[in-house]
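Holo model, FE2/S2 (inorganic) cluster. Inputs:
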Amino acid sequence: MILYDAHHVAPAYAVRLLAGFLGLPLELQGMDVYPGHDDRSDEFLALNPLGTLPVLVDGDTVFTDWQEILAHLALAHGPDWYPATDPALVGWLGIARDLAASAGAARLMQTFCVPGDLAEAKAQAERLLDEVERRMWFAERAGHGWLLAGTHPTIADIAAFVSIAPCEDGGLSLRDRPALRRWCDRVRFHPGFVPMSGVFPPMANT
Amino acid sequence: MTMVPGNWYAVAAEHDVPAGHIYRTALGGNDQAIRELAIWRASDGAVQVWEDRCPHRGVRFSLGEVVGDELRCQYHAWRFAKGGACTFIPAQPDMKVPGSIHAKAWPVAVSAGLIWTGVDPVGEPPVLGEGAAIRAVPVARPLAEVETALAQADLPGLALTLQPLGDTETIVRGLVANGDCAAADRALAALRRQLECVA
Ligand code: FES
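Output:
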């Protein structure tokens, strides 16, 4: 499997993170987004006309949507990560997409000088972070540790984590969002975790 | 007045600090500078409230990790024990760490399921009675305004206390007598909307 990847792109990190948790080997095709603009090359646009990262090539199939890639890998290699009978999965993946478009976008503007309306992105992200914090707090009280009820993390946790964990790079804060900080710890300590710049790995337990 | 030396302030609930986790908040305002706080538990369960700054190079302790009975800083892995003393510096493994290297530890009291601290707090924390610790609700208004609104609001069964964060933000904490945290949360969310809309 070939992953067209850029280290700092959160949706690409989501795929690497799931592959880490599942122990799947990925052949990484690193893309020079800036200053190289590899994602606007004719060759890449032939693969993915939208020009977005990541892209996964698995055999003859090309996947160009990051959440579809997560679903594909989970269905094929770790069905526990894809609880298809729980409608909440759809809701949470939607929230994760909204988080990417707000908290994720704010991070790209603030840390990578991508143009955009930072104030609007942050305002939308604040609303979403407050709501995810509220839900996670009540989930914890009910004995759950993950976004979906149950004992196993899902692709929804991964999809949300990649926008929430590095959100301070977008001028947002996890201080006084304690349930989100605890949930981030649970993801970080899950076996197979891989880091990204701005997201610390657990240190070796020595 | 926002933060007053001598007072106790609730800055976390006990359930906010499970073993192995470093909780992050802040306290301050008025003439008191904002103090960033890192809160964790030693393995005997004793709650530690520290300034969220490593004395080595000033990195936030809340980025670090609890390892066994110590907090380990994320950057250079200096380790600090309960009470705040630095116990180990990896770059100088054979050196006995000078006693002067110390995390700034704040006074701590645990009562009614809440964790309290303050600047030279006097006596015991206020008594809130019995009940379940509610979800803390941050409000982007100064403490005095939140205090006034709470005094006028009809919130039966709630015993509340306020944590000032600077001059523009206040966290509402407390207990709900009947244990209905969801109802308490809805009531405080409404109060928050009302306060934050008044520009
Ligand atoms: S900054 Fe904490 S060990 Fe260096």
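Chain B touches chain A through 25 residues (CB under 8 Å). The mean pLDDT of chain B is 93.
Archived with the compound record.
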